[in-house]
Amino acid sequence: METSGQPDSRPASSAPPRAVFATTHWSVVLAAGAGESTRAREALSRLCSTYWYPLYAFVRRRGCKPEDAEDLTQQFFARLLERDTLAHVDREGGRFRSFLLKSLNHFLTDEWRRARAQKRGAGQILSLDAADAETRYRLEPLDERTPERLYERAWALALLNSVFHRLQDEYARGGKAALFGELKFCLTGQRSTIPYAELAQRLDLPENTLKTLVRRLRQRYRELLRDEVAQTVSSPRQIEAELQVLFSALS
Questions:
Q1: In this structure, what DSSP letter does residue 174 have?
Q2: What is the pLDDT along the chain (251 residues), one digit of tens a residue?
Q3: N vs C: which end of the chain shows fewer Cβ within 10 Å?
């Protein structure tokens, strides 16, 4: 994430759950698995491009060298994007986060030997920045965290990063990129080094108006966070539980 602190990701308990899951991450997976359209499979490929790093981190924590982890991650996505692999996805339940990890574990169990024997660089599906991945992986906590817990933490951070950029793009499209740049501090655990009164003067706004803008920014962030989580589960009833898992992973 472009900010230096961890986002204030507390959910808005008063926000109503989405009643209809129209086009979500999960529905994209199901559509791709059913072979419903090339467009759905392209959408799934873009989705994997967003969430590939948690899988890479999982493979690395399993003891693989960087080059092997890159190869295995590439080969996993190659297998995932094959129609036969997605044809049996459970349509009644599950979370996209759990689905990916379960699929990866099956892949590592069934294809480990073959994947390591394949020529390095063959069959690349995604453009993975291996150098960036290793830089990020070296910043992971040096503790006894299991591969599964590391995966959950990396997933949570990837999701929050996606939410942050969705909000940033939203403000930019509304011609408020500069305002977002001034107020994004309120989405982190850090306080602004500039008092509200001084910041309001710099932005040529009444202080009460500035506080209202900050409150709206935080509220919109929470709405987008819930929406992003909603897209990774198969039922609105799972949103709260998934949020708690993600917050726990970041603690």
A1: T
A2: 444 444 554 444 334 333 333 456 666 776 666 665 676 667 677 777 778 899 999 999 888 889 888 888 888 888 877 755 666 666 556 788 888 888 888 888 876 666 455 555 455 555 556 667 777 777 676 666 789 999 999 999 999 999 999 999 999 999 999 999 999 988 876 666 778 899 899 999 999 999 999 999 999 999 999 999 988 887 888 899 999 999 999 88
A3: C
The candidate with the shortest Cα–Cα distance to 3, out of 225, 188, 217, is 188
DSSP alpha helices (H): ranges in the chain? 25-33, 38-50, 52-61, 66-80, 83-86, 96-117, 130-138, 147-173, 177-183, 196-202, 207-230, 239-250
Q: What is the DSSP string of 195-219?
A: -HHHHHHHTT--HHHHHHHHHHHHH
- Among residues 25, 156, 171, which one has the least CA distance to residue 99? 25
Q: Which of 14, 51, 33 is nearest to 163 (CA)?
A: 51
- SS3 of 39, please? helix
Residue located via tokens 């150098």: 131
Contact 59, 73 (CB under 8 A): yes
Reported pTM: 0.72
Domain ranges of the chain: 25-250
User: Reduced to 3 states, what is the DSSP secondary structure of residue 131?
Assistant: helix
